[in-house]
């Protein structure tokens, strides 16, 4: 018997290493195309040892998706300081950073990847959407949102997803343009709702009141007026 | 031997009957909850006979989804006559009719139902989105869309999907309000894009030029200006 030069990893440490290796591979190529053999090889362990820690590829995929979901939800957290438009723009930058880092895996998941339809992956995707929703309401200072505000926020979250997916498919528009555009889209969707509903109009006036003239909210209004004339 | 009073159905006729019965059941409750036994009973035939025409529930689900997809795509077709806003509003009405008729099945599919992730169901959902995209471009009179127009149209289609899903979840906002709101959302997203891009601005000016003052496009502009002042 010899004493190994490489320290043995504990169970939890090994699991975390495998999740990291798998997430890296699932982010660079569609998870469909990543094999357990490849994950084992990238982690420097045998295929049977991978199965010792994860019963199958789906459970490893779900663990990787859990880590990615936690990561993304953490990027939504923004200090409650300064103009709202600027806060949302900073979050959009971090969102596109995430999408950029996990492109193929993000596309595969949102377009219907191998493990989509599993109740675990659906619940994780929903939990990230819910985290985004809760953050936005907290920045708007609303605890009991009317149905029209909930619609604007949730449907805008879905717009941000589809915009990111379309961006990934060829990257024909620079993300530096799409980030402020999504902030403006939020303002525009809120304005459409406010155009037909007094409660939304009052909310929007309160939001816009403190926005600086050069911020993404106010500058949009100026540009739209110029466009209309 | 006796001569049956009920005429025997041909193979294709029986298949079409089963698809109709299944679609009806899949539309009223989540397809997860509908059994082959129930479909057989509703069609007035035995369970083994269902399997004679469809090897399993997935293939019957896919056939029902194919019929629903064809139905929905046909509702997107609108004569190229009159103002664009009014055309889009008529399509939105037919879209909400469809969503209303197939509520639980539509939700289950779009939120990740039992057969989601099958390449056939994903392809069908994508084909409907593509049909909507092609129709909108034809009404805009654009054959070779710039990337920013493609983004506006495709991301708006996804906004219409999420708006319909949110509507189905409690129906807290009347659909009569959401239909024109989605037409306005389209104009608003196009306007945001036009605010930052000259090609989109020229396109939007051409679209709005022929819109009547009381149409959904022009009335939004007036309401937004009133909101801003």
TrEMBL record, chains A, B:
Residues 12-72 form the HTH tetR-type domain. Pfam families: TetR_C_46 (PF21943), TetR_N (PF00440). InterPro entries: DesT_TetR_C (IPR054129), DNA-bd_HTH_TetR-type_CS (IPR023772), Homeodomain-like_sf (IPR009057), HTH-type_TetR-like_transc_reg (IPR050109), HTH_TetR (IPR001647). SUPFAM superfamilies: Homeodomain-like (SSF46689). Residues 35-54 bind DNA. Keywords: DNA-binding, Transcription, Transcription regulation. The keyword Transcription regulation applies. PANTHER family: HTH-TYPE TRANSCRIPTIONAL REGULATOR RUTR (PTHR30055), TRANSCRIPTIONAL REGULATORY PROTEIN (PROBABLY TETR-FAMILY)-RELATED (PTHR30055:SF174). This is TetR/AcrR family transcriptional regulator.
């Amino acid at each position: 018997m010899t004493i190994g030069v490489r320290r043995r990893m504990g169970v939890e440490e090994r699991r975390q290493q495998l999740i990291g290796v798998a997430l890296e591979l699932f982010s660079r190529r569609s998870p469909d195309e990543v094999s357990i053999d490849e994950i084992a090889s990238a982690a420097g362990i045998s295929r049977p040892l991978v199965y010792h820690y994860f019963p199958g590829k789906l459970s490893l995929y779900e663990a990787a998706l859990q880590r990615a979901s936690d990561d993304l939800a953490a990027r939504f957290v923004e200090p409650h300081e300064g103009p709202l438009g600027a806060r949302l723009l900073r979050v959009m930058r971090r969102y596109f950073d995430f999408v950029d880092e996990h492109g193929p895996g993000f596309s595969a998941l949102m377009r219907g990847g191998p493990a989509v339809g599993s109740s675990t992956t659906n619940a994780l995707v929903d939990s990230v959407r819910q985290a985004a929703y809760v953050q936005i309401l907290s920045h708007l200072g609303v605890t009991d949102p009317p149905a029209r505000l909930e619609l604007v926020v949730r449907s805008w979250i879905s717009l941000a997803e589809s915009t990111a997916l379309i961006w990934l498919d060829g990257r024909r528009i620079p993300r530096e343009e799409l980030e402020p555009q999504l902030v403006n889209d939020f303002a525009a969707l809120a304005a459409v709702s406010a155009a037909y509903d007094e409660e939304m109009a009052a909310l929007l006036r309160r939001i816009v009141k403190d926005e600086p003239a050069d911020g993404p909210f106010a500058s949009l209004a100026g540009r739209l007026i110029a466009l209309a004339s």
